[in-house]
Amino acid sequence: MTLTLRFKYLAIFLSLWLISCTEVPKDLLRQQVISAEGTVAGAISPVSQLLAVSSLTSGIIVWDLQAGNAKFRLSHGDPTQNLVTHLVFSADGKYLLSADQVNVALWDLQDGKNLGFWAMQAGVTVRDIAVSDYGRHLLIGQSDGKIQHITLKSGRRLEFQGHSENINAVALSPNGRYALTGSSDLHSYFWDTDSAQILHSVSHPNRVTRVALDTQGRYLFSADSLQQAQLLDIRSGRVLSKLKLERGRVFSSARFSSDGKWLLTGSPSQRASVWNVQTGQLVKDWAVSPSPYAKPPGAVVYDVALLNNGQLLTLSSSGLAEYWEFKP
Predict the structure, then answer these.
(1) CA triple 168-173-179, angle to 5 deg
(2) What confidence tens digit (pLDDT) does each residue in 202-227 have?
(3) Spatial contact of 322 and 307, defined as CB atoms under 8 Å apart
(4) Where are the domains of the chain?
(5) What's the pLDDT tens digit per position in 35-67?
(6) What is the DSSP track for 111-163?
(7) Which of 7, 101, 127, 159 lies 20 to 30 Å from 57 when distance is taken between CA atoms?
(8) Are 98 and 76 within 8 A, CB to CB?
(9) 128-148 pLDDT, tens per residue?
(10) Could you tell me which of 277, 201, 200, 190 has the C-alpha nearest to residue 242?
């Protein structure tokens, strides 16, 4: 029996196991098994039918949802030695940025070609990453509190030193001109990548763990490790709303819907959620299928996206892409 055939059988078995051992929520429409082994990172492309996961032994899998199979298999080398812990698509869906602890790599999704590797300085690790449209600009948040903004064509590097502690989350506007960064120093900053000038500052009572930018340039999101999560108007810096949260709720992912009405979030506790941007009210909650590798059973939600047909798509550490009915 070939390895490919074994993998197919394993994927089928995993799917059947999950269905038989888990009560299927009524809002769950269908599932796709992306990886039949443990995963440590994942991302959904904003505009195309692609998603990506980082597996424990197989490197990066770029998955075509429409075809139902792997489009590319990418690697930073031996995945057991260089485990990829961060994945993010450009807003145009044409490029993928990946990172292990000390290396960042850019990939062209037309042919799977690698466009470059960037290594951290000794003693510095990658904390979060972002990439602009056309792969023109990279943003790298580091453990030393610094942020690198790299322009590929010119080779220009701007080092933002506005934070005083390690970086936990970064986001980049589609054109690469503006960045939103969050740190353990209790602040998130919205700043100009041309000048490093801080345009807006958001203060938190706890370390900032998640940030997001609306791709249309309307809103920004900043959340800390305990209870404060705010939505702001990008132009004025005015707080639009605060999410109505129970204490201790942490976000593993966040993105805005294309129309700007909703904030889509994932959590380390299986939860995918939709929030009203203007009011901060929770609109809908889902519990994704648990990972068979987690004890006790659970799953980290890597990404949540709202599709053109109105369905919600989630990607989690269970290795599953799941489609959900969403009726606001």
Answers:
(1) 40
(2) 999 999 999 999 999 999 999 999 88
(3) no
(4) 1-33+252-328
(5) 988 799 999 999 889 999 999 888 999 999 999
(6) T--EEEEEEPPTT--EEEEEE-GGG-EEEEEETTS-EEEEETTT--EEEE---
(7) 127
(8) yes
(9) 999 999 999 999 999 999 999
(10) 277
> Euclidean distance between the first and final Cα of the chain, in Å?
48
CA separation, residue 76 to residues 38, 90, 104 (Å): 18, 19, 9
**Pick from 170, 193, 173, 194: nearest CA to 182:** 170
Task: Take residue 36 and report the two structure tokens written for it.
Answer: 């039949």
Distance between CA 118 and CA 101 in Å, rounded? 11
296 versus 123: which is more confidently predicted? Answer: 123
Positive or negative, the Cα torsion across 194, 207, 85, 93? negative
Q: How far apart are CA 248 and CA 226, in angstroms?
A: 4
Query: From start to end of 7-56, where are the E strands?
Result: 28-33, 39-44, 50-55
Tell me the C-alpha distance between 227 and 250, whole Å: 8
